[in-house]
Structure to design on (550 residues):
């Protein structure tokens, strides 16, 4: 409920602070006194776009702040989804800066207008004759019937399952498109994969292959050079080994003369040992040399295949070819398994489809069950509101397609007078009739769900005294379970309020100001007497006012 409203520097309002209670709050005032200004300020809190022209003093900031008690509204999840701090006493503030820039805050957290609208729709409902057009819209009509049918949990379940259904269906379409594309590439991918598999890439060491190729391809040159090198080492008298031995003998003669000479001798001995090992290794290599044209051809062929694959796939490493082979195999597997994947998705969709149909049937049955109750209550209230011949028909037709709230088409049909025929509500009801129908529907809704605070803005326009009395009774009844405001010109309704505020204008220093005052009991009597008989208050008007209030 709205507990307080603060308006500063807005339209004709310098500064206004007002506290509200629950129950039925009446707001009265002469035409042009500024009731629309009050609504305009409240609308800014609810997310209406700001306009610098609305600011009273354009050099100062305009502030509008409303405090709501939201303990009964179950809005913690909404606050979480909007990334806001939840507080039972929630404060919404709008500011219009002299620059024309507008800012919005919820519990001192800056928010966008979208977030403000998302929250405010749960807090207060400003109901005017223009807003009655909402009654002709499908979404609102479903909302009414589903509230009476207690379909909330069913609709939440349906919405969840429908989201899953749509995702699965989208995935299925994508799979079928992928299949069509993959099938075109399947043969080529299979050819490339087979080509890569045949060479057994994982067992190829490219460096070893190249070494083997060079050795086999140059065996004669290698043999010749090994023989020549061995001759250099072993030639009699002039061979390197004999020369090293001579050096060793000479150094042995002086090794006892000091450590440096001993070290030189040991180093020469080491060189001699290393040369002996080298000679043995050369002998082994020479003995193992052999020509193998077939092996040379095999290695050459494998190297050519690898190099061709490098060129074909624009890579230079065996690891890259292995990665390409795995990717190709994955595509081949995907293509080969896609039919089964598509079949699995189709089975999932069938299961979700079955669940959706079951939930939609529950929703339909609940709707069908409450429609007669709704029509009966609505016609009874409309009869009290001066529409005794008004008849309602709610047509509920199942469809073959899933929509966002089930599988039904819903239509409100209305007949205002005897002898006429049922027609769509928007075509058959006048503005005044729509206002009374909306009042009746909201009074019914208040029995089933927690409605936001509601402000009826001159909904009683053009209504006679007795009917206005009935309207007041309905608002009074609604206010027993929710906060109700009524901006009215009718004394019969004004007298029903638990509290009463008057909007009025004053002129101060050649400036007009709009003010709002809460009336005490005596002031209420005077206000209602003036509503009955005009500014000149008669004794009979005062007596009638007291009678209405009692």
């Amino acid at each position: 409920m709205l507990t307080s409203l603060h308006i500063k520097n807005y339209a004709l309002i310098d500064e206004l602070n007002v506290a509200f209670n629950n129950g039925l709050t009446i707001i009265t005032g002469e035409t042009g006194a500024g009731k629309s200004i009050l609504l305009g300020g409240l609308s800014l809190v609810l997310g209406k776009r700001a306009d610098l022209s609305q600011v009273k003093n354009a050099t100062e900031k305009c502030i509008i702040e409303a405090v709501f008690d939201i303990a009964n509204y179950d809005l913690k999840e909404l606050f979480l989804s909007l990334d806001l701090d939840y507080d039972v006493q929630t404060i919404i503030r709008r500011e219009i800066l002299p620059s024309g820039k507008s800012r919005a805050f919820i519990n001192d957290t800056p928010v966008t207008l979208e977030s403000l609208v998302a929250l405010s729709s749960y807090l207060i409902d400003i109901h005017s004759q223009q807003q009655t057009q909402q009654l002709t819209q499908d979404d609102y009509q479903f909302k009414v019937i589903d509230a009476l049918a207690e379909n909330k949990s069913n609709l939440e379940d349906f919405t969840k399952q429908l989201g899953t259904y749509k995702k699965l269906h989208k995935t299925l379409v994508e799979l079928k498109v992928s299949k069509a594309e993959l099938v075109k590439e399947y043969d080529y991918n299979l050819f490339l994969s087979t080509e890569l598999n045949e060479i057994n890439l994982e067992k190829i060491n490219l460096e070893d292959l190249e070494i083997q190729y060079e050795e086999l391809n140059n065996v004669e040159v290698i043999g010749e050079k090994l023989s020549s090198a061995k001759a250099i080492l072993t030639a009699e008298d002039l061979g390197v080994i004999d020369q090293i031995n001579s050096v060793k003998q000479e150094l042995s003669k002086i090794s006892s003369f000091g450590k440096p000479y001993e070290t030189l001798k040991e180093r020469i001995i080491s060189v001699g040992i290393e040369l002996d090992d080298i000679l043995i290794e050369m002998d082994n290599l020479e003995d193992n040399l052999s020509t193998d044209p077939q092996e040379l051809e095999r290695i050459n062929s494998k190297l050519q295949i690898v190099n061709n694959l490098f060129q074909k796939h624009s890579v230079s490493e065996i690891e890259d070819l292995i990665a390409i082979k795995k990717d190709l195999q994955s595509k081949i597997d995907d293509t080969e398994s896609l039919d089964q994947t598509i079949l699995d998705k189709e089975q999932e969709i069938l299961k979700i489809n079955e669940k959706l149909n079951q939930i939609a049937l529950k929703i339909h049955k609940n709707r069908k069950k409450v429609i007669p109750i709704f029509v009966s209550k609505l016609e009874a209230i409309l009869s009290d509101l001066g529409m005794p011949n008004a008849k309602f028909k709610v047509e509920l037709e199942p469809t073959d397609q899933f929509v966002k709230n089930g599988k039904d088409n819903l239509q409100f049909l209305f007949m205002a007078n005897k002898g006429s025929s049922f027609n769509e509500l928007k075509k058959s009801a006048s503005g005044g009739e729509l206002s009374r129908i909306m009042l009746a529907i909201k009074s019914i809704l208040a029995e089933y769900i927690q409605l936001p605070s509601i402000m009826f803005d001159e909904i009683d326009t053009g209504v006679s005294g007795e009917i206005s009395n009935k309207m007041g009774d309905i608002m009074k009844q609604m206010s027993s379970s929710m906060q109700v405001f009524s901006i009215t010109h009718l004394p019969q309704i004004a007298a029903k309020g638990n509290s009463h505020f008057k909007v009025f204008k004053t002129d101060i220093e050649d400036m007009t100001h709009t003010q709002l005052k809460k009336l005490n009991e005596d002031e209420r009597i005077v206000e209602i007497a003036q509503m009955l008989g005009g500014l000149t208050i008669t004794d009979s008007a005062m007596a009638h006012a007291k009678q209405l209030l009692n």
Notes: The chain has a mean pLDDT of 88. The longest strand covers residues 391-403. DSSP finds 17 helices and 15 strands in the chain. The first helix runs from residue 35 to 45.
